[in-house]
Write a structure and sequence with these properties.
The structure holds two protein chains of two kinds. Chain A contains nine helices and no strands. By secondary structure, chain A is mostly helical. By secondary structure, chain B is α/β, with parallel strands linked by helices. Chain B starts with 5 loop residues before the first helix and ends in a 15-residue tail after the last helix. Classes of the chains: A mainly alpha, B alpha/beta.
């Protein structure tokens, strides 16, 4: 078993023991369940889904920041590093654990959202719905990468606070400034809220997914660099 | 796991040459390490005392790769590569915070450590049983989360995990403080003539019998490196004050002629 797999399994178990795994999954699945349980016309339903997934993305980032800062503070990261696990492997393992859980949650929320939305409107295009959901999934990855970056340099509560503030700021920017939306990782959420009956898959949805993936890569690279210099 | 068998280290020629197990040159890290250079021969049990206190811990942390030196070079077992293919698996570290997940059992911790060492299943099982027995982890605790046994169980488990790889170099930073003095002393009298131990301590008096030599770090540099026997010869106790006094006497004394002792270098 590779060291990255060992770290990923440890991370998942740590998340499970500390109830963070439940919080993470409940955040996403709860959004899908709420959308399904509260009847509304299509535009309102999609707006709720987008807002809920935005909140769940911030929650993912906050869980990432909390978990990684805690890992450093309690010396568990040091324990692994003194057993020849590289700092890069440590980061990759935690990213893999958090990303796989959050993406599973996003998939379930998206499926529940699609089942509810397609029951409300028979003319809703599957591709038009799936494109922004893919963008949202990429946004979730960016949020986790940002959380890990903050957890690398800040202490637990400060990292969580910073994640919430930055996440809400980016969300507000994507929502309130449509012109800037495509450059902001949260743009896919605005695209999801804007999906309408009979509309084709928006190009901006894929652009938003690309922007979020680029942001994820940049944030992970920055976290890797900072982790190399960090005290463990 | 060790690449250098005891028979080799006990060869007469190597006993004379005493190659350096740990060598650091011009290490700098804030005000705690300022161009610190040290060469520790194979088999030495070195007690590191610092002024300020934190500098000894910082040296151990830098050697273990937990803190990064701003400048300087580290060589362990003649290698500069800290990865698993370099000296990574020849060195073990045990600090004041063991860093073991509290929900893991001692057996799980040792299994994880064995897995990270890529030990075969049979070898891992044999070593785990040996270490559990050596660390005197009682059978009723072996399969229960370490938090149930409190800090003493956590620290015993951490030491057992550190020794699982049979490391050539052991870096200890205020280890096993949760154990009573006798048991701590028993566990830290580590077997193996070739094993090199660096032990950072703020309480040198509690380390009697554990070290053969003592290093004093002052203002980020090695101010003195002496045999514990030299302290006794000067009728000084193994304490911060005693070590300080010996360093002052040596600083004011004229340089002694080379007496043919193995090289113990503090540059």
């Amino acid at each position: 078993m590779s060291q990255a797999t060992v770290v990923t399994r440890l991370a998942v178990r740590e998340l499970w023991i500390t109830f963070r795994l439940l919080a993470l999954l409940a955040g996403f699945i709860g959004v899908g369940a709420l959308v399904a349980l509260l009847p509304a016309p299509l535009p309102t339903l999609l707006e709720r889904l987008a807002l809920g997934l935005g909140a769940a993305s911030i929650l993912s980032g906050a869980v990432a920041a909390w978990s990684f800062a805690d890992e450093r503070a309690r010396g568990r990261a040091a324990w692994l590093v003194t057993r020849s696990v590289s700092r890069g492997t440590l980061l990759a393992g935690w990213f893999a654990a958090l990303a796989s859980l959050a993406l599973a949650g996003t998939a379930v929320a998206g499926l529940l959202g699609w089942l509810t939305a397609s029951a409300v409107s028979l003319r809703l295009d599957a591709a038009a719905f799936a494109a922004p959901i893919l963008g949202v999934a990429a946004t979730v990855l960016a949020a986790i990468a940002l959380g890990l970056l903050l957890g690398t340099v800040l202490h637990g509560r400060v990292a969580i606070g910073a994640m919430v503030v930055i996440g809400m700021g980016l969300g507000a920017l994507a929502w309130l400034v449509p012109g800037a939306a495509d450059l902001v990782p949260g743009a896919a959420l605005a695209d999801l809220a804007a999906v309408r009956e009979g509309a084709a898959a928006p190009v901006s949805g894929m652009r938003a997914a690309g922007a979020a993936l680029v942001a994820t890569a940049v944030l992970l690279a920055a976290a890797r660099l900072l982790l190399e210099r960090a005290e463990l | 796991m060790s690449s250098t068998p005891d028979a080799l280290w006990s060869a007469p020629s190597l006993r004379v040459l005493r190659p350096a197990a740990v060598s650091c040159t011009a290490l700098s890290r804030g005000r705690l390490l300022v161009g610190c250079s040290l060469s520790v021969p194979v088999g030495m049990r070195l007690l590191v005392v610092g002024e300020p206190d934190e500098s000894a811990s910082m040296l151990i942390r830098v050697l273990a790769g937990l803190s990064r030196a701003r400048r300087g070079r580290i060589e362990i077992a003649g290698l500069t590569d800290p990865s698993a293919s370099g000296w990574g698996r020849r060195v073990a570290h045990l600090g004041p915070e063991p860093g073991i997940p509290s929900w893991m059992t001692p057996r799980e911790v040792l299994g994880l450590a064995a897995g990270l060492l890529d030990l075969s299943t049979a070898d891992a099982a044999r070593r785990i049983e040996t270490m559990l027995s050596w660390a005197r982890i009682r059978s009723e605790w072996i399969n229960r989360p370490v938090r149930h046994g409190g800090p003493p169980l956590v620290q015993r488990t951490a030491l057992a995990a550190a020794l699982l790889a049979d490391p050539e170099v052991l870096l200890l930073d205020e280890p096993l403080r949760a154990l009573d003095a006798d048991e701590r002393s028993r566990l830290l009298r580590l077997p193996g003539r070739r094993r090199t131990v660096l032990l950072a301590s703020r309480y040198p008096a509690s380390e009697v019998g554990l070290a053969t030599h003592v290093a004093l770090l002052r203002d980020g540099r090695v101010a003195m490196l002496a045999a514990v026997a030299d302290l006794q010869a000067e009728d000084l106790p193994l304490s911060v004050r005693g070590i300080d006094t010996l360093a002052e006497r040596r600083a004011s004394a004229p340089p002694a002629p080379d007496n043919g002792r193995p090289s113990v270098a503090a540059r």
